[in-house]
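Hi both,

Apologies for the delay on this - the queue was longer than expected. I finally got the pyridoxal-5'-phosphate-bound model through. Below you'll find the protein sequence and the ligand SMILES exactly as submitted, and right after that the C-alpha cells for the full complex including the ligand.
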Amino acid sequence: MLTVQQKNIAEKIENNANRRLWRDWKWQLKHSIQDIQTFERLTGIQFTEMERLEIQETLARFPLSITPYYLSLIETGDYKNDPIFKQSFPSVNELTIQKCETADPLHEDHDSPAPGITHRYPDRVLFHISNVCSMYCRHCTRKRKVGDKDFIPDRETLMQGVEYIRNTPQIRDVLLSGGDPLMLSDDYLEWILKEISCIAHVEVIRIGSRMPVVLPYRITDKLVEMLKKYHPVWLNTHFNHPRELTDSSREALKKLADAGIPLGNQSVLLRDVNDCPRIMRSLVHKLVANRVRPYYLYQCDLSEGLSHFRTPVGKGVEILESLIGHTSGFSVPTYVIDAPGGGGKIPIMPNYLISWSANKVVLRNYEGVISVYHEPEAYPATYCDRQCDGCHLQLKLDDAIETQAIGIEQLLADWDEVSSLIPADNARLERREEEE
Ligand SMILES: *Cc1c(COP(=O)(O)O)cnc(C)c1O
C-alpha cells in the first residue's frame, strides 16, 4: 500500500505511475530529486526567492539527491523541523566552515595503501567501492567524495584494492563502503564479493549501506539470494530517527534478517534531528524489534560544513545515561568519537567507576545507587611470557594468531619490554637525543 503522499508524488512524477513502479528501485533512482524546482513541485513547499538563492549556492558545492520514497516521508506541514527534510535538503549553514573543520578530518586518504582502501586497524579494512548514493545525507562525513567525483570505480581499479587485501594476510574483515555499495548492480557487487570471499584469510565481509532507510526497494529477493551465497556477510545501516522505520523499510530489514545477515545500525548524533533521549530510546527499540542491533552512535565529525549538526559531547553522554540500565543491553549502541587525524573510533561512556582502593572498587549504577565490589583476596599476577605450551590455561588454540601487542595492550603485556608510549614529536626526548 502506498501512502496518500506517495500516491501523490508518484502521480506528479509520472502520470498513472502505479505501486509496482514506485517499488522499482531503478525507477526511484531515475526520478531522484536533484533540483529545487522539482522538490517544490513534488512537495508543494514554496521557498522565497532569497531562500532559493541560498539553497542554490549550497547546491553548487554539495549536490542534492533525494529518492521519491525518502521525500515522501517529509511532513510538509512542518518541514522546517522535519528530521527527514533536515537530513536530505541543503541548508545555507553548510557553507559555514569552522576553522577546526576539514574535508577529510579522519585522514582516510592518508591511510590509503591502495585505491579505495583505508587500512587503519590491524585486522580490517574499509573498501570504498562506490562514490554514489541514492540520497546525499547533508551530514555526510565524506562530502568531499560525492558530487564532482560521482562514479563507480571500474574493475581494474577495484582489483588493486582486492590485490592489497589478498597480499595482506592480517586482514580478516573487509568492510564494503562508499558511497553506497548497493548502488552497484547485483552482478557487479557479486563479482566483488566473489573476488574477496575466495581470499583464504578473509573471514567476514561487511556492507555499509543506507538503502534500507532511503531506498528500501533496493533490498530485493534477488539481491538477498545473491548476498547469502557469500556468508558470513554482515550489514550495517544508518537509521537516525524513529520516523524512518516505515512498512517499506521493515520489509527490507526482514528480507535481510531472514537471509541470515546480521544487521547493525550506525546512527549519527545530529542537532535538531535526534539529540533527545526519548527520540533515541524510541529509535533503538524500533531497531531491535526489527532485528537490528544498535551498533554505534557517532559524534558528528569535523567535516566541512557540519557545524550546525554538531552537539556537545555531553549530549551523547546524557543519551547513553538514559539508555544504559534503563533498557535491554543489546539496545544500547557504543557512543564513539572518530578521532580527528585518523586515530579511529574512541568509545565514550558515562563514568560508573567512582573510586578504587587496593582491594575494593566503588561503582554506581544507572539509578545512582553506589555499591562496593570486593576484589579477590589473593590474585597473584601470573607472569605471561606468551609461551602458551607451558601454560595451565587451556588456550591451546591451533589458530591462535600471534601478533605484536599494540598501544596500551603493550604496556600491560609482560612479554613486551615497552614501558611508555611517547608521541613521535616529543620535544623533551628530542633534546635527549641531541645530547647523546
Ligand atoms: C569504522 C571503521 C572500521 C570498522 O571499525 P569497527 O569498530 O570494527 O566497526 C574499519 N576501518 C575504518 C577506517 C573505519 O573508519
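Main takeaway for now: Residues 118, 120-121, 124, 126, 175, 345 surround pyridoxal-5'-phosphate (CB under 6 Å).

I'll put the files on the shared drive as well.

H.
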